[in-house]
Amino acid sequence: MKSIVVYPPKQPVKAEIKLVASKSECNRALIINALTGFQCELSNVSEARDSQTMMRLLDSKDEVADVIDAGTTMRFLTAYYSVTNQTKIMTGTPRMCERPIGILVDALRILGADIEYQKEEGYPPLKLNGFNYSGEHKLVMRGDVSSQYISALLMIAPELPSGLTIQLEGEVGSRPYIEMTLNQMAYFGIDYKADWQANTITVPPLKYQPKPYAIESDWSGASYWYSIVALSENAEVELLGLKQNSLQGDSAIVKIMRHLGVESEFTDRGVLLTKIPAAASIGWDFTDCPDLAQTVAVCCAVKDIRLSMTGIESLKIKETDRVFALQQELKKLGAELTEIEKDHLYEVSRISNFQPLELPSIHTYDDHRMAMAFAPAGMVAPIRIEEPGVVVKSYPGYWKDLSKVTVWEEKEI
Ligand SMILES: O=C(O)C1=C[C@@H](OP(=O)(O)O)[C@@H](O)[C@H](O)C1
Ligand SMILES: C=C(OP(=O)(O)O)C(=O)O
């Protein structure tokens, strides 16, 4: 098995990092572009495999669309291929075929999509047999499982003859991702109405206006750099291509990391990270920013900051069961993730010092965020990351960028 061992830096951490572009913003821009008949000029297109897969599949005439492990690609394309009346088989990795899609399929069927499950009800692989508009223009659906179903439907909504109203039920998770979708739709000329008191969104039937669009750098990718700064003795890092008024909810990392010892100063090129004193404990609700949970959990575990976490239920249906994965791997750093209140409140705390006698070897569970969240612990003591290639899903240049601040070596185990 391949692995990378990360060693603590011998000198102060000082770097300028040109971050990868956001795969979330990019995948939305790619779908909207497709709906304009590919007339937009997109710049800073993401190198993330999830976005490269989206581009490949939008361009492909093959019947089988294999999304690999890209959740947004699976959900957004299922809606796009349906409304554009394409016959496709949607599939992905074994894990993708364990990630639920029933809520989206039910909604698309109500609108007129003919979709069959090829194996298990509610899960990929799917067979899409085309679209025959039912005339329905109002959907009531759960908002507490994955926001990606909602974004997928919103993006195709202007194409429907009567537009679409979506009424969301339950506590809406990952809401900033829904807002990102709506903001990008508005940029391309769609005049929507969102009432967050009533959890109702209405999109009129309209044509997307083709325009140039520049994709912002990835705030989820930025979070690992915040953790690197938080865990280094001496550090100053400038992250290029990030904006203060971002469409990405993971820009919440700015506020979270103030408690963990990192100050952010926005410059005309991005954001400059410097060190400040850290708090002894923090509580955070990750409902709006689930992809930050692993970064913050590992950083707190290593810094011995007691962390209370809520809003992490959706982590169980992502690239892996991230709650289980964190529980297993944090133990190797001498820390614990404990469930205090079932499916609601969790706590990260230390049980022994993080200066391990043996090299901890972190299993990554086919999850890019496990690799990228644990590697910053190497700023304090050497750490081994197994299957480091998983980072390609969202941040292919992660290891190359990391070599700008510290030493790591590849080792076969
Ligand atoms: O819409 C998006 O781009 C995403 C939404 C989130 O998923 P959920 O809505 O399933 O939480 C997030 O975890 C994922 O990485 C990207
Ligand atoms: C959950 C993620 O992605 P997706 O759901 O799009 O596979 C992620 O990138 O952390």
Automatic annotation (TrEMBL):
Gene3D superfamilies tied to this protein: Enolpyruvate transferase domain
Keyword Amino-acid biosynthesis: yes
Enzyme class at the top of the EC tree: transferase
Catalysed reactions listed for this entry: 3-phosphoshikimate + phosphoenolpyruvate = 5-O-(1-carboxyvinyl)-3-phosphoshikimate + phosphate
EC numbers, comma separated: 2.5.1.19
InterPro entries xrefs: Enolpyruvate_Tfrase_dom, Enolpyruvate_Tfrase_sf, EPSP_synthase, EPSP_synthase_CS, RNA3'P_cycl/enolpyr_Trfase_a/b
A Gene Ontology molecular function term of the record: 3-phosphoshikimate 1-carboxyvinyltransferase activity
Keyword field: Amino-acid biosynthesis, Aromatic amino acid biosynthesis, Transferase
Pathway: Metabolic intermediate biosynthesis; chorismate biosynthesis; chorismate from D-erythrose 4-phosphate and phosphoenolpyruvate: step 6/7
One Pfam match: EPSP_synthase
Location of the Enolpyruvate transferase domain: 10-58, 62-402
Family: Belongs to the EPSP synthase family.
Protein name: 3-phosphoshikimate 1-carboxyvinyltransferase
Source species: Dyadobacter linearis
Gene symbol of the encoding locus: aroA
